[in-house]
Amino acid sequence: MGPVALGKCFLCAMAPFRRRNMGFTPIHFSEEDRIFQDQIRRFAEREVAPIADEIDHNDRFPSEVIPKFGEMGLLQWSVPEAYGGPEGSLTMLCIAREELARYSLSLSVMVGENGNGMALPLLFGGTDAQKQKYFPMLAEGKTLVAFALSEPEAGSDAAALRTRAVRDGDDWRITGNKIFVTCGPVADYVLVFARSNDAPRAKGVSAFIVDTSLPGVTRGAKNKKMGYNGATPNCDFFFEDVRVPADAMIGGDGEGFAIAMKCMEFNRPAMSASALGIAQGALDQAVSFAKEREQFGKPIAEFQGLQFMMADMAMQIEAARSLLFEVTKRYDSGEMEGYGALSAMVKTLASDTAMKVTTDAVQILGGYGYMKDFPVERMMRDAKVTQIFEGTNQIQRMLIARDLLK
Ligand SMILES: Cc1cc2nc3c(=O)[nH]c(=O)nc-3n(C[C@H](O)[C@H](O)[C@H](O)COP(=O)(O)OP(=O)(O)OC[C@H]3O[C@@H](n4cnc5c(N)ncnc54)[C@H](O)[C@@H]3O)c2cc1C
Fold first, then answer.
1. Which of 16, 255, 297, 343 has its CA 20 to 30 A from that of 392?
2. For residue range 167-205, what is the model confidence (pLDDT) as tens digits?
3. Distance between Cα 397 and ligand 1 center (Å)
């Protein structure tokens, strides 16, 4: 069989795969999961795809789309039904994140991450009175929340944070500096982790809900990022003697760091789903381009050098997707044995896959891939951050190794 015939044969064999054009749906998805996936997919195609490049190029917060997320329950994902929230599963959260990230990482990350910045700490450490106070407000899907753990001297080593909370009668006074806060410029509330007692490192850290309109709260200028632009503007925060009431503390004195780690553990699969979505989006783009672009008198998809690249991209994506939905299935059914290590594994695998696949997608598009006219350029820039935030991939590998060696 000559090379042209081999190429034609390959394209025929790939036809059903191409029609689906979005990877394989995990076999264990329930009927409800599939219907939800279909709804989000259609929403993403209708509302997100048309603005994805524009909000990146102009770094514009898409305030016309965010309220629709709230109406669909996507901003307030983990708020319990008892308080009017959707109380969604981790599996469905990840389905939404993957589908939206096929077009836009920043809009994908708004799902769950935003409302969950306050909802998860409340779930993990809030009193009934705090839940009663904040959950109904979050359930409306209009409140924007940011999560402020990182500081100039405390990144991967977050337990080294220096922001202080000092007791003053019935209140706490918070002073310190937080950096790189996602959604900081638009947040109504920010969850602040501060040192509230003299215990060393993690044991001295507490979590506080801070209204961003309080006196003493100042936001820095919007940070200019490599990518991940649009729906997730980023800034630093300065807190100067910010007075918050005693019930702003979630969890007990010194329990804040453990709460932060639980939130990050929950968020890792969600971040993996976003990384996976970028990878799938980039593969879809690369496959369509390769079928259209002709060089040496034939579509470049017929060159085996590119076919092998695309095959590797698809394999890596399916491996990451399989692990992701295995992890979410375990979480949703309460099987927490090994969850910490598994969630670190999937975060690392999915984000490394996103970086590799988007880089290869740019390669397949050649010079066009390097131009801002094609989304793979943005996808490659966006993929990079998934290896950095929610704990860098070096830190994830440390967690995996720690679990292996315990
Ligand atoms: C776009 C963006 C959004 C963000 N959003 C938020 C947010 O909303 N809230 C928030 O609190 N933070 C946020 N962050 C901060 C993010 O969590 C940190 O950037 C991340 O934890 C790494 O910290 P660092 O940047 O200080 O790097 P460092 O900790 O200084 O690390 C630098 C390098 O050293 C490596 N390294 C560090 N320690 C070790 C070790 N022990 N072994 C091996 N390698 C190591 C790291 O992996 C990295 O490669 C965001 C960051 C970005 C880029």
1. 255
2. 999 999 999 999 999 999 999 999 999 999 999 999 999
3. 14
Q: Is the CB of 159 under 6 A from ligand 1?
A: no
Whether 48 and 64 have beta carbons less than 8 Å apart is answered as: no
Query: Which amino acid residue places its CA nearest to atom 6 of ligand 1?
Result: 181
Q: 385: Cβ below 6 Å to ligand 1? A: yes
Q: What are phi and psi of 239, to 5 degrees?
A: -115, 120
| 3-state secondary structure at position 377 | helix
Q: If pLDDT is split at 50, 70 and 90, which confidence band does 75 have?
A: very high
* 3-17+258-405: CATH architecture: Up-down Bundle (1.20)
d(CA 157, CA 217): 24
Q: What is the residue extent of each domain of the chain?
A: 3-17+258-405, 31-139, 145-255
- Mutating to test ligand 1, I would choose from 116, 150, 234, 263 the residue with most ligand atoms within 8 A of its C-beta, which is 150
pLDDT digits (tens, 9 = 90+) for 333-348: 999 999 999 999 999 9
Cβ of 389 less than 6 Å from ligand 1: yes
Task: List the catalytic residues.
Answer: 390
In three-state secondary structure terms, 180 is: strand
- Best residue for ligand 1 mutational test, from 59, 392, 395, 396 (most atoms within 8 Å of Cβ): 392
Options 2.40.50.140, 3.90.1720.10, 1.10.10.10, 2.40.110.10; CATH for 145-255 is 2.40.110.10
pTM score of the predicted model: 0.93
* Cβ contact 111:40 at 8 Å: no
Task: Name the CATH architecture for the domain at 31-139.
Answer: Orthogonal Bundle (1.10)
Q: Do 3-17+258-405 and 145-255 come out as alike in CATH topology?
A: no
Looking from the CA of 19 toward its CB, the CA atoms found within 13 Å total: 4
Residue to mutate, 388, 393, 402, ligand 1, most ligand atoms under 8 Å from C-beta? 388
* Ligand 1 contact via 163 beta carbon (within 6 Å): no
